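Here is the promised in-class demo. Please do not try to memorize the tokens; focus on the logic of going from shape to residues.
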């Protein structure tokens, strides 16, 4: 099993679309193991977007991310990082395929409605950045045999 970090950005909160987006992840078969609303700070955004600090849009990006609280989700599933990243779609919503979240809910590069971790190392760091250890839960999932074949997941996890 893998875990990944998703942020529902201010566009989703402003447009009352939180439930719709969360429903997509639930319907797909991903398990929500952490979820909270939080107001992001300059400090956490400087860390989260440190790879973009030199970009001309950096301040505008931070302003857009602090316009309202965001909802942070920790999602779990087999290959969850790749599955969720594909569900999010390409960064620029105008290029994102219909059927993806960005392709269905936005027409912007910056106002692209969700963040999703892009690899195992970033997922690990990002979950720790947005959740305290006791805010992410380990609980038994009873429907694993209906979501995956036995050889697709480790039964001990
Ligand atoms: P990035 O990490 O490149 O993409 P992703 O979110 O798909 O992992 O960029 C982070 C965010 O920065 C992106 O979601 C929206 C914003 N952004 C812009 O505002 N303008 C841009 O030209 C790019 C590339 C990103």
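The designed amino acids, position by position:
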């Amino acid at each position: 099993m893998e875990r990944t970090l998703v942020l529902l950005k201010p566009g989703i909160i402003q447009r009352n679309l939180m439930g719709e987006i969360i429903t997509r992840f639930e319907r797909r078969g991903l398990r929500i193991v952490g979820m909270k609303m939080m107001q992001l700070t300059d400090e956490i955004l400087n860390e989260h977007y440190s790879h973009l600090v030199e970009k001309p849009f950096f301040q505008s990006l931070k302003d857009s991310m602090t316009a309202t609280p965001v909802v942070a989700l920790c999602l779990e599933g087999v290959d969850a990082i790749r599955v969720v990243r594909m569900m999010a779609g390409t960064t620029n919503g105008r290029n994102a395929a219909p059927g993806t979240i960005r392709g269905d809910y936005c027409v912007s590069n910056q106002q692209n409605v969700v963040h999703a971790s892009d690899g195992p190392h970033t997922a690990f760091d990002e979950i720790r950045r947005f959740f305290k250890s006791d805010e992410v839960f380990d609980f038994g999932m009873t429907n694993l045999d209906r979501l995956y074949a036995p050889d697709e997941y480790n039964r001990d996890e």
